[in-house]
Specification:
mainly alpha
């Protein structure tokens, strides 16, 4: 939520929801956060980059001119 400037209350975390994930192998301690957290961080970076690219196109500006702010 901090990285994208989204209120924490808007974040939904689903634990053990078999309607969303059909197969799981457990968390194996802290590995889930290490792997999942890194994946979320990289995905957030990609969202920002793509958003800047779209904004630059719509605003007819260069991508380097677009600043991401929460």
């Amino acid at each position: 939520s901090d990285k994208l400037g989204v209120p924490f209350d808007s974040v939904d975390i689903a634990f053990g929801d078999t309607d969303r994930v059909q197969f799981g192998m457990g968390t194996y301690g802290s590995r889930s956060l290490v792997v999942g957290g890194a994946a979320l961080s990289k995905a957030s970076d990609k969202v920002i980059v793509k958003g800047k690219k779209i904004a630059a196109h719509l605003l007819e500006a260069g991508e380097h001119d677009i600043q991401f702010e929460a």
